[in-house]
Amino acid sequence: MTKIHSTVRAMSVLSIARVFAAVIIVASYLAAQTTISNKTTPNESQIAVRIVAEGTTRGAVACARCHGFDGASDGSGAFPRLDGQSAPYLADQLRRFASGDRQNALMQPIAKALKDDEIGAVAQYYAHVHTVPLPSRPVPAQLRDRGKQVAEVGDLSVRVQACESCHGPNGEGEPVSGVPYLGGQYSHYIGVQIQMFRQGYRKSQQMIVPAHNLSEQDITAVAAYFEQAPRPAVK
Amino acid sequence: MPQTLKEVDVVVIGVGFAGSILAKELAASGLKVVGLERGHSRHSVPDFQAPAIHDELKYSIRKGMMQDVTREAMTFRNHYREVALPMRQWEAFLPGTGLGGCGVHWNGQSWRYHEEEFIYKTHIEQRYGKKILDPDLRIQDWGVTYQELEPYYDRFEYLLGVCGKAGNLNGEIEAGGNPLEAPRSREYPNPPMKEQYSGALFRKAALELGYHPFLQPSGNMTRPYTNPEGMTLNPCAYCGFCERYGCEHFAKASPQTVILPVLMKNPNFELRTESQVLKINLDSTGKKATGVSYMDAQGREFEQPASLVLLTAFALNDVRMLLLSGIGKPYDPTTETGVVGRNYAYQTQSYVPTFLGEDVHLNSYMAGGASGTVIDDFSVDNFDHSSLGFIGGCYVLCGSTNARPVEFHPTPPGTPRWGRKWKDAVRRHYNHTAIFNLSGTSTSMRGNYLDLDPTYRDAWGLPLLRITFDFPDNDVRMSRFVTHKASEIAQQMGAKTVVDSPRTGPFTTTSYQSTHNTGGAVIGADPSTSVVNRYCQSWDVPNVFVVGACNYPQNSSYNPTLTLGALIYWTADALKTRYLKRPGPLV
User: Fold this and answer.
1) Residues of B annotated catalytic, as ranges
2) What pLDDT digit, counting tens, does each position of B509-518 carry?
3) Nearest CA in chain B to A167
4) Total number of domains in chain B
5) Which of A195, B348, B441, B569 has the fewest CB atoms within 10 Å, counting from its CB?
6) What digits encode the pLDDT tens for the residues A30-79?
7) Is B75 helix (H, G, I), strand (E, B) or coil?
8) Domains of chain A by range and CATH?
9) CATH number of the structural domain spanning residue B294
């Protein structure tokens, strides 16, 4: 909470007036389990908090409606968790939604309505939110073991390399180079995204072959494994 | 007593690129093929898995993928009047071992040679007269031409999925490629790699000086690629761990990613790893091979009879196996008689460290093994040598293959080699230094050769290979000239400090230069100056074929792998269409 207060102190009086209500909501949502570090510049964080809480006048819906103020989303897996996600990755994805390179009917109009500096600000906001994760759902041991094998070792018979070759140990990602974390991400979301790569709704040179070669069962297994993997520490 | 095994049609010694492709072609023709590999079996998954594969201490410093020097070393001397001593550690060059051979730990630099290189002697003498050649140089023609090899270059490029841009398509110069390359019959299978920042700076400077920069052709993929064998490769992640490492992404063309899975599925093929071949056995006439003797990991000796023996190990070890087996007459530099071991050559490598300002952030760790920007203007005979007094040249490449933290710490001259000042200099220059790499021709010379060491033996009691080599004066003059040209480009880039450091003799084995050891079992039209005929077939024992960089009569500017690939398919074709129908000498 002290970090939030320091962020608030850094804002100008005018801004405080405009986003006061939003901050109240943020604070109540975050409660004691969430902190926002103030690594973003004051101006950037003002922009970000406003967009997350209220959306923009140009028509972007408030991010918090689906993703929450803490980035944990609703846990259904329909929406990814964003807390602590790589900022370059989040910004890149928003730009891809806007251009249609990543096809998503919900996100495209929102991303299109955001200006480039707003995209950067929102990405920084969620990259620096840290939430204590909810307990993950139980997974049959056999499924989790198979997921672990694909994630850590890969499978020569289908020529799929270990997911962790790029996504890092425990799927913790490469925040600077924009490789997203998978550890602690919702399994349903991961599974759907692999399908998106397979069907061309998402474009990544690196993901084409693995998405095509993994069986349905292995996609489920690997997604289940990563949901249970520890969340990366926020740096 | 060695145990004699059931006879097979073909035995392959060494299962790298050459061994796996030839075995695949012949097994597919219905022949029973046994592949003998001295090293371990290994595959992309799980053997090259991250993060364990990115272990610099294990693979770069301790040479984890190389021939075990405690069991099989080589001896070295600069001159045949000296006594050679064994190398106790690999430094200058790195002979690979294990399934896939050097095709696992190479950088993926995929060059064709020029047309004139295959007729080098004829070409040089025609263009400049004989007087340009120092008296002890021994360049010669290949006995096979570029035009003959072109379809096989093409086939190998499509097997690997080489990424590049054509510069000369059937004689038409194409924008964006290397305008000086030999004509190719079709475009590369994949587009070139992303240009590094240092490469972009180099490109600008090279253009300003009137040169022709382009992106080097790469065996690391730029997009998902399925080759004609049905093998799918992944795009490269630019992680900077190619050379000396296996690729965890299925992104580097290697036997494991392009051909081995197809070969392993064929029931006509049997792979035996950890099988150390001791010699190729000959019948009483000495003109026919009967098979090979080898020892397995338990020390059991076997005789594997075969009607055809393919020698496809590392270049230096191919020559050693011929010498151990008594195939062909060993070369004697004093009388210049004999051929096996003759025309050993290397690579005349030099570097131009280019220290840029601290405001220039190169991020050189984001690199593939073959993602450099190059000029070909000073390669081989791409420039007029008539007033220069030497032959040969270098390509000049800017761009890193890695900036791995243990190995890469450029410091300007005058920096202490250790201590706080060294650390400060590393910190200061790490991200702001480009290293030009000049890969130069190595001209064969009378006194440079390979033979068996009279003193030192390996773990199996067999004589080690002895290397006698020093840089010919011609190559030292060449390196001085081209390195200076490269330094001018570095100055043009706005460098604060440029280290103009041409290669000088004597050759030493204690610092890495290149693994491109060539010659010793040279290809040619004349049995008195070559070991194999134009189909890589032994002149002396026609049921032995030797395919490797040991076939090259002299070494080019360019990395040898692609030309080896062309020779592999050329030989495979000769075997399938001619030799198998009528076994015997093809020439």
Assistant:
1) 516
2) 999 999 999 9
3) B50
4) 1
5) A195
6) 443 444 555 556 688 889 999 999 999 998 999 999 999 999 998 888 99
7) strand
8) 2-131 (1.10.760.10), 141-228 (1.10.760.10)
9) 3.50.50.60
